[in-house]
Design a protein that fits this description.
With about 220 residues, the protein is an alpha/beta fold. It has seven helices and six strands; from the N terminus they run ββααβααβαβαβα. The chain has helices spanning about 30-40, 100-120, 135-145, 145-150, 165-175, 190-195, 205-220, and strands at about 5, 10-15, 120-125, 155-160, 180-185, 200-205. Strands 2-1-3-6-4-5 form a six-stranded mixed sheet.
């Protein structure tokens, strides 16, 4: 069950899992894997390239005569067995883009979020009296102390897009130097971050935005 904390990090209460994230996620492992694979593979440049035998310069002359030298016969110094020769089956420029339709991507994101909510890995943050001036204040809020923040669980803080100019700016500034903490907003939230971080700390506004975004998906499913 998600836990609610105040602006000082004090636990207030536990709340029920929202209906939008209460669905069964046991059969969605494959969809989550393919969505994460797509997000990690698609940004790859794919510009790696090696020269094949017919692309290497030189080697037009036979290095030595066919017979009589006692050495193995050779036809070109650009053969793969020669130093600086061509590469056999080497990497060539290619695209790593992996296709996944919009409906399946959204279903995978919903399943990943549902798993976090159902396993108690989501904490709701009340931001009414949030006053963070330094990084140590943010570390104390999330982990209890700056020292504990160095070895604490990987935590992703999510705020709503409507909070970009207020709470979002404060969270991003104070959390920038915490190695175990990531800060993003609901519009930029992707599945690899959800899977990659152990705990999600979601502001109340972000929680409402996520529920509104996925409530219709859950009903149609």
């Amino acid at each position: 069950m998600p836990q609610v904390i105040d602006a000082q990090g004090k636990a207030l209460k536990d709340i029920a899992v929202p209906d939008a994230f209460a669905g069964n996620v046991s059969g969605k492992t494959n969809a989550i894997f393919r969505a994460v694979f797509r997000e990690l593979a698609s940004p790859r440049a794919g510009t790696h390239s090696t020269l094949k035998r017919d692309e290497v310069r030189g080697g037009g002359r036979k290095p030595w005569k066919q017979k009589g030298t006692g050495r193995a016969r050779q036809g070109s110094i650009r053969s793969p067995q020669w130093r600086h020769g061509g590469v056999v089956f080497g990497p060539q420029p290619r695209s790593y883009v992996s296709a996944l339709n919009k409906k399946e991507r959204k279903a995978a994101l919903l399943a990943a979020l549902s798993d976090k909510y159902q396993n108690g890995s989501v904490t709701l943050l009340q931001t009414e009296k949030l006053d963070l001036k330094k990084t140590k204040d943010f570390a104390t809020l999330l982990f209890g102390s700056p020292k504990a923040a160095k070895t604490g669980v990987r935590t992703l803080v999510v705020f709503a897009e409507s909070e970009l100019a207020s709470v979002g700016e404060t969270l991003a500034r104070t959390g920038n130097n915490l190695t175990q903490v990531g800060v993003t907003h609901t519009g930029a939230l992707d599945i690899k971050d959800i899977v990659g971080y152990t705990r999600l700390v979601v502001t109340a506004a972000a929680n409402d935005a996520l529920i509104a975004r996925f409530a219709k998906t859950e009903k149609s499913a």
